[in-house]
């Protein structure tokens, strides 16, 4: 493989334009080709011509590719890239159906290529810091993860509902933070904006390791919220992935003297710490992990298998909402 990886980008819309910027700034990678049937709405091509389709992109002679087109087009592009021997990062969710996702997983495994999915929240500095500290035992046993991802409707999302577009982030980050897959889910959805897809979902469940999970996601809130709360034996971590802040609320160690309170045998309030740490751009960290995985290093890249697992949980949640019953995964 060449010393510098030749990169191709399919799709330069809302996410694609950011991929273009990061690919251009990444050491060891050169963005050599861009393809988008819809042209270049954000004028990111620079001195590159905009190629018409995936076949033209492959024809440019690339080592790695980023696929940032609408979800229903992921499978076609990914299978062609796998056949051409190109390591590929597709935006999340992995695909529009589980069958399509599985074909992608199989194709990249059979070709011995790195196939990755852009579940970017794993690379958020607040969650990376939380995960490091949980692994170091600072929380003790983990009891519960609660996430809230709420905001206004993004007009650009036309082909999936809020579950696949947004809840997939929370399912992936939750399983990653606690290092255990979802085992059972119960979900409820609402359809309030006159579209065929849900715009609100609440998923409650449990991981195989016994952690209780709750994910609240919608496109119907006038305020934007991106919060993950991990509660455990020694306190709680609150990660704001919008700002990258991580705060630790410790359980108190000071004995309570006030009688009416001290009869309650739960935890008490202790110190609150907001950590200071380097806050790197998640997309850049994601790209570095993908690049290093292609170079054969052990990284935190989100594999297609993991992306497929996340889609499986989201589909189970949607099935649960339709049936009004919990679903074992």
From TrEMBL:
Domain named Gfo/Idh/MocA-like oxidoreductase N-terminal: residues: 6-119
TM regions (residue ranges): none
Keyword Ubl conjugation on entry: no
SUPFAM superfamilies in UniProt: Glyceraldehyde-3-phosphate dehydrogenase-like, C-terminal domain, NAD(P)-binding Rossmann-fold domains
InterPro entries registered for this protein in UniProt: Gfo/Idh/MocA-like_OxRdtase_N, Gfo/Idh/MocA_Oxidoreductases, GFO_IDH_MocA-like_dom, NAD(P)-bd_dom_sf
Domain of life: Bacteria
Keyword NAD: yes
Alphabetized UniProt keyword annotations: NAD
MF-aspect GO terms: nucleotide binding
Domain (GFO/IDH/MocA-like oxidoreductase) ranges: 128-237
Pfam families registered for this protein in UniProt: GFO_IDH_MocA (PF01408), GFO_IDH_MocA_C3 (PF22725)
Full protein name: Dehydrogenase
């Amino acid at each position: 493989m060449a010393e510098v990886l030749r990169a191709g980008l399919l799709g330069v819309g809302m996410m694609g334009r950011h991929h273009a910027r990061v690919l251009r700034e990444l050491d060891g990678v050169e963005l050599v080709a861009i393809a988008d049937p819809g042209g270049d709405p954000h004028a990111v091509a620079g001195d590159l011509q905009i190629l018409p389709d995936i076949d033209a992109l492959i024809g440019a002679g690339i080592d790695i590719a980023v696929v940032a087109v609408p979800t229903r087009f992921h499978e076609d592009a990914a299978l062609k890239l796998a056949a051409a021997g190109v390591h590929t990062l597709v935006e999340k969710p992995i695909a529009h159906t589980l069958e399509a996702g599985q074909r992608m997983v199989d194709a990249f495994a059979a070709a011995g290529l790195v196939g990755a999915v852009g579940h970017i929240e794993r690379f958020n500095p607040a969650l990376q810091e939380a995960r490091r500290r949980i692994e170091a035992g600072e929380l003790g046993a983990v009891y519960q993860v609660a996430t809230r991802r709420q905001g206004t409707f993004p007009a650009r999302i036309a082909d999936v509902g809020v579950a696949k577009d947004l809840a997939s982030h929370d399912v992936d980050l939750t399983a990653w933070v606690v290092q255990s897959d979802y085992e059972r889910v119960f979900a409820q959805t609402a359809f309030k904006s006159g579209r065929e897809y849900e715009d609100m979902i609440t998923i409650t469940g449990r991981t195989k390791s016994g952690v209780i999970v709750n994910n609240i996601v919608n496109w119907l809130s006038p305020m934007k919220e991106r919060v993950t709360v991990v509660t455990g034996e020694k306190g709680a971590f609150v990660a704001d992935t919008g700002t990258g802040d991580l705060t630790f609320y410790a359980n108190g160690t000071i004995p309570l003297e006030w009688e009416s309170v001290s009869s309650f045998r739960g935890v008490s309030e202790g110190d609150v710490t907001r950590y200071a740490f380097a806050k790197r751009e998640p997309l850049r960290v994601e790209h570095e992990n993908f690049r290093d995985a292609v170079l054969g290093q052990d990284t935190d890249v989100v594999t297609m298998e993991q992306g497929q697992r996340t889609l499986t949980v989201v589909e189970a949640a949607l099935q649960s909402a339709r049936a009004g019953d919990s679903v074992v995964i």
